[in-house]
Amino acid sequence: MASDESKKKLAEASAQQLKTDTVCKCCHKQEAEFGPSTCGHIFACKRCAMKIATGGKCKVCGELFADIVRA
Asked: Pfam families annotated for this entry (predicted)?
């Protein structure tokens, strides 16, 4: 049986991983809200999405895309 301290550390690690998963993969500053319509990965904040709106490569899987949509 896990101790309370172990459970607390596991919860903190999970929360940190969730925060990391939602941060923009381009600038690493803002929350990611946009991604390609082709693969569905969400990896860009609004500012970065505007820069890559006409196409590029998914930062998660590498698939090429022609447009980007809001999650």
From this structure: zf-C3HC4_3
Q: What distance lies between CA 50 and its chain's CA centroid?
A: 16
The CATH number covering residue 47 comes to 3.30.40.10
- Domain assignment of residue 34, given as a range: 4-70
The pLDDT tens digits for 8-41 are: 665 565 555 445 578 999 999 999 999 999 999 9
Residue with tokens 């490569």: 57
Q: How far apart are CA 36 and CA 40, in angstroms?
A: 6
Q: How far apart are CA 24 and CA 40, in angstroms?
A: 15
> Within the chain, what is the greatest distance between any pair of CA atoms?
52
The CA-to-CA distance between both ends of the chain, in Å, stands at: 39
pTM above 0.85, yes or no: no
